[in-house]
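re: ur question from earlier - yeah i can do the single chain one, its not a big deal. heres the input i used so u can compare w yours
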Amino acid sequence: MKAVSMNAHPLLVIGEPVEIRGAAPAESQAMVRFENISKTYPAYRGKPGVNALQGIDFAIARGSITGVIGRSGAGKSSLVRLINGLEKPSTGRVVVDSKDISALTGRDLRLAQRSIGMIFQHFNLLSSRTAANNIALPLEIAGWSKADIKGRVTELLNLVGIADKHDRYPSELSGGQKQRVGIARALATRPSVLLSDEATSALDPQTTRAILDLLANINRELGVTIVLITHEMSVVRQLAKEVVVLDAGHVVESGHVADIFTHPKHPITQSFLAEVTGDSLPVSLASRIVQEQGGHAVIRVQVRGAGAGDTLIARLARELGLDVSLLSARIDEIGGQHVGSLVLGIPLGDSCDEAAATRTLAWLSQYQFSAERLGYVA
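and the output i got, formated as tokens:
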């Protein structure tokens, strides 16, 4: 597949080159900044040491929703534990809201951690406490008065849509309701950063969509920076605007979600996307595509923007004088942008002349469209 990225800026890190689509946030605009981070766990009880993270150097913009995606063992858990100060980097530093959290200890670290909320895959609620009392726990630890706690808990229950579950215990709540309690608890001390560690992995698809919608609303209303730690590209597609792809402790790809979906560079990213999009060709079309030359050359093109597909076909017809057929189309909204996959038929004529297909691919490359030839149809 030949792909040309738009406005790509190369960045070299230890391991493999990645492409950052769009400029990194300025230091004053960054809520979280990783500066040349490595994390090594020493050998323990006969087990060898592990290089969990290496050469991590990127920033998360203030007020953004950023997905950090990777397979098991990619380094996601280590990354999130560095953000909330539960682990210290072996080298480099982690800056959260202008504070070098990797250098803090004791009371200073505990105070900084109050500005970092955390929601978990398995909710981590105390079974002996009601929903309201679970939410109140971090406020009690922080020394809030009973009156202030009561007001804040009521506000948070309304925010997450479970005001009627005030006195319910976790055993009386559904998975989605438990996670709403967990989100409210994470927001109790008014954090500037909200870490979501596989927060929807234990939920069914419908509940997952509802929780992601809630997080999007929290981001809009409160302006809190959200970091999604996940192994599910579908979660990134629905909620995040930026994405960082981890593999074996390295950042292998990073940028705007729409750019990554339309121009994946690294095999691990491509495998994540294959799980989400699969083969976008209708069965009726896929069964007709052959590799023997003839009829129409079949070319798949990635496009972005509302109406981009119609514009592309019109330009091909006008500039190249081709009678282009639209064989299949799929449009999604990703990262707030329309992203489409068009499958075009380029007529080769009776002599099966490849010139038209060659000119089409060259034209698409010239205008920085990602395109691949799939074969031929009669």
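The longest helix spans residues 205-222. not sure if urs matches, ping me
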